[in-house]
Design goal:
Blueprint: E1 4-6, E2 12-14, H1 18-22, H2 24-37, H3 42-53, H4 59-68, H5 77-83, H6 94-105, E3 108-113, E4 118-125, H7 128-137, E5 147-149, E6 159-163, H8 168-177, H9 194-204, E7 205-207, E8 218-220, H10 227-240, E9 245-248, E10 254-256, H11 258-267, E11 290-291, H12 292-298, H13 303-311, E12 318-319, E13 326-328, H14 330-341, E14 358-359, E15 362-363, H15 366-374, H16 390-401, H17 412-426, H18 435-447, E16 456-458, H19 464-468, E17 478-479, H20 485-490, H21 492-504, H22 511-520, H23 532-542, E18 547-551, H24 558-564, E19 570-576, H25 579-595, E20 600-605, H26 608-611, E21 620-625, E22 633-634, H27 642-645, H28 649-667, E23 668-677, H29 686-697, E24 700-709, E25 720-728
Length: 729
Amino acid sequence: MNDLSVSDTGRRVRSDSIEGRYGAEFVRSLVLEFYVNRKLSSTEAVECIEKEYGIKMSADKLLQLAKRLGVTRGKSEATSLSRRTISYDPIMTDDIRDIVDGILMGDGNISVNVNTGVGRLRLDSAHKEFAQYCSDLLRPYDASIPSFSPARKGKGNGMWYTQTRFHPDFFEQYERWYYNDGKKDIPQDIRFTKMFLLLWYLGDGSISAPNDMNSRSLYFSTNSFSRRCLDEIVVPKFEEIGIDVRGISKDNRTSIASKSIYRLLQVMGGESPVKCFCYKFDLEEWRTWKPMKQVAKELYISYQKLSHWVKIGKVNHNRSPGGKKVMFTQDQFDMLRIRIDSGELPRQKGKKARSPSNVGSVNTSLSALNDLTSGRIKSTSFFDRALNSNQVDELSGLLRGAEMRPTPGESEQSFLDRVVRTYQRAGFPFPFVSDARKTKLWHSLKKSMCYPLGNCIRWNKSGIKLANSFHLHKYSLHAKGKLSPQQVFQSYDAFYEAIRAYRDAGGRLTYGGVLAALSNFGGGRKVGNFSPFVVKDILGHYGFDGMRVVDPCAGFSGRLIGASTCRYQCVYTGIELSKETLKGLLETQRFLFDVAPDFQSTIVPGAAQKAFGSFSDGSFDLCFTSPPYFDLEIYGEESSQSLATYPNYDFWLKSFLGTIVGEVYRVLSVGGRMVLNVGGLSSYSLETDTIHLAEAVGFTLERIHQIQFGTLPYSDTNILEEPLLVFQK
């Protein structure tokens, strides 16, 4: 039996133990030095102790010594493991804090280590898809992939959970949220933003099915929070964004007023980002209509006057189920507004309606629209720039706001024939965006929240309408094997088939609906455009103030507009070959001079392979572009187009894309990134070939994001994903 000795700390230890041989205080100093001060893991610490002092021990032995000698484990193992995977520099921004707050309002919680001042966020959910969605949002904190935790003692169904790494940011959030004697409660500085409300609703919100009275209820399970916070924080915050709270139940459940349900769903984006919660946004169409009192208020007319117009049948309207309430669809509301603004329906009491006035062949009254749809008036395109008058704008607004429907007794074939002949007589339904509307769309995009980038980037169409308004020639371009929208429009049979298929798929033949039919049915397909919203997110993630961005294939202004709304001040340089597309880019640039005077941009005409010759080495910090997918889309008839110059895929890959990648590597600064959106070719491996090209010239593949495109509401195709390749020099 080994002898026992008394250590210098007064404890009895075995003489052949490490403490007995070297002394407890000396061993304690070793543990503190390597395990705490140097913040090494157990494995790294024992290796250093053996190397520097010749003392051998196992990692488990070191853990036992640390516990026996009173050394806090949290200051060593947990800290070092976290530091090896995530920086302790502050990451929390206002946008990320909204995400964290939204998760904590639901089923999220924070655990902390008070000794080290770090914490981590954990979310438990019954749905793996929602846990994965939150994991992607928390990617800056290296959130784990969802794992399943089985139910204890066979009770329940188990939960999926994801959690972040330990970080000081979450210790600060713990102090915000757990200020009430360690119990989670709502902080005073919480912000009711779109992302916050969305995550809160998905995590802890519910919507009931309609009952016998056709009523609906939407509520949040705020049972765990104090009534004081609900009364003093939640209710006023909802009122600030125009949402009425119906009440708070005895068990502290917060219910939203029925009239505010639709508005709240719209504030949250109108749809669920995950399929498992789509039912929470499933609202009957009639609930989206506007009640008569709201319409009267928005149009600045008396309720009695509008009620009289409804009673005598002067305005089109709908009613809620049961016929109780008079309600207006958005199309009916727009039509009513136009009729009032044009003077056909007098707003002021005692004032007679103006008689319609004719301007050439264009009549601005509602009767002119009826004449036009019945074929009695011939007109050129509403968007012919030679006819840029208020009367033309009003007439185009009438047609855009109205949905063409069959008249009583009219057959489907006769109705579709009438639609085709009406629009072919009026001209191609180009999307019209006024200058004021363009400015509003840009500012809306500028104010939108920037989301942290995860492995999956959801496509967002915000800003595409603005970008397309500068490139109306897009509708004369087409994809491989397809007709352009204008070609479909010019062919009676193709036009007829397009609106028939669109109508069978549930589409409505409004002005915009007809344009959608021409762009996606009847054998036609328009060329795509890159989302400025996604550009804003990507540049916000990889960018910095003063960043110099080059876009070798500038395209239809999507990346130009996205760069102008980025949270960082960046300098954009775009290169474009097509003459018509170049005109649109220059027009976009002039627009941005007015709305964003501090934004600097340069548009360089010509082919990218040659234009790079004017740039010096290291003159850019980031390249972001979406090059042509070989022959998938036809962008012009110029002989210098890449497909016309390099008709063979291997030749195109080497001489066009390979040349651009090599030149990008040259003009990027050290550490600069090249971000490429490629894909869309089923017969060629464009993604793999692009990676090989980039690595061959010296790039390192840093990350691959997947851009996820949602399916169209009238399409049965599966969700499409395209890779976004991020390389670093």
